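Researcher: Sit down with what I've pasted below and flag anything odd:
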Amino acid sequence: MRNLGERIRALRTERSMTLPTLAERSGLSKGLLSKLENDEESNPSLGTLHKIIKALDATLSDVLDTEKAQLKRIVPEKQPSWQKGLIAYLHNQGQKLDEDILNAMYVLRNRKATKRDDLEYWKFVYQSIEKSLK
C-alpha cells in the first residue's frame, strides 16, 4: 500500500462495500471518502478515521499497519485529561496502562491539528489498538 486512502479502499472492497454504503454507515460524504481514497496526500483527522474504522468494522491497526507515512510521537509536557481518565478506567477494570499503546496514541493524536480530549473516544482508540495486538 502506498497511502492511507489505498488502505481504506482495500478494506472497503474486501468487505464488498460500496462507497455510498461506507458513506451512509460512517456519516461522511461520498465526496470526502472518494477524496481520501484517491488523494495520495490525504491526511484525515482522527475523528474522520474513527468513523471510517467503525463503519468498516475494523481496527486502527487494520488501517494504519501498512501506511508508510513518517509519524512523529509527541509526548505532552502535562498529562492530558483524557489520559488521566483512561488510566482510572483501566485501573477500575483491573488493567494497567500499556506504555506501547500509549505511545501509539500520542502518534495518532498528533496526526492532525484537531485534538480530541473526550475519554470515550480515547477508550475506543486504546481498546482498538489493544485488540489488534492480541
In short: The mean pLDDT is 82. The chain is about 60% helix and 0% strand. The longest helix spans residues 119-133. The helical segments are 4-14, 19-26, 30-38, 46-56, 60-64, 81-92, 99-109, 119-133.
